[in-house]
Design a protein that fits this description.
By secondary structure, the chain is an alpha+beta fold. About 30% of the residues lie in helices and about 30% in strands. The strands form 3 sheets. Strands 8, 9, 10, 11, 12, 13 and 14 form a 7-stranded antiparallel beta sheet that branches. Strands 1-2-3-7-6 form a 5-stranded antiparallel beta sheet, with helices on one face. It is globular and about 50 Å long.
Length: about 250
Amino acid sequence: MARRKKLYEGKAKILYEGPEPGTIVQYFKDDATAFNAEKRDVIEGKGVLNNRLSEFFMTGLNTIGVPTHFMKRLNMREQLVRQVDIVPLEIIVRNYAAGTLAKRLGLEEGTALPRPIVEFCLKNDDLGDPLVAEEHIIAFNWASQQDLDDMVALALRVNDFLSGVMYGVGIRVADFKIEVGRVYDGDYQRLIIADEISPDSCRLWDIETGQKLDKDVFRRDLGSLTDAYTEVARRLGVLPNAAPHYTKPTLIN
């Protein structure tokens, strides 16, 4: 069967025209990048793991009433998602000091923050996805004040879900990044979670040992990225025929 029309190719995914109007096929690549794509490699099996893990998280969010673009997984590397107009912002939720926040503020990595902090970055690879203030977002019409309020509310609900589920399998969510998209019902607009949620977009630390189970393994040359992602999938019971090490949490509305 001929491949459908390619709509977009990013660092970790390819988007193809979906089988029905308003749908997209999202393909997960094995490519790994860091430092705004200055560091690159191909990690065999990474796309399969991220596809399965993103399915797990998006399905869980849909179950508890947090809307996402996810519709169904098609195969080991592809999933069917709803087409959305992506808001040109990355929303970052931080629970512990790490990465750029630790560097900016001179905090020791791993310092617990007094409360979850929500930050916004402009989606622009050429500029290095710079941090932007809410005033910039409104002034340049990237989003309205109502959009900002809705994005913060969505991000904090995702944080509650991720933190609870991952704590149940012995993993701490230090921070994560999400994207949102606009969908329309007539003249009415609403925002939903889009893109992906996977170890590519989260910082995940083992609660007991502090071992990193996310893309920092690749950034810092800490070992096998596939092994780290496989461990996350194993604990969550995502991998076929792999019993979780911890009791798998039950999703409750």
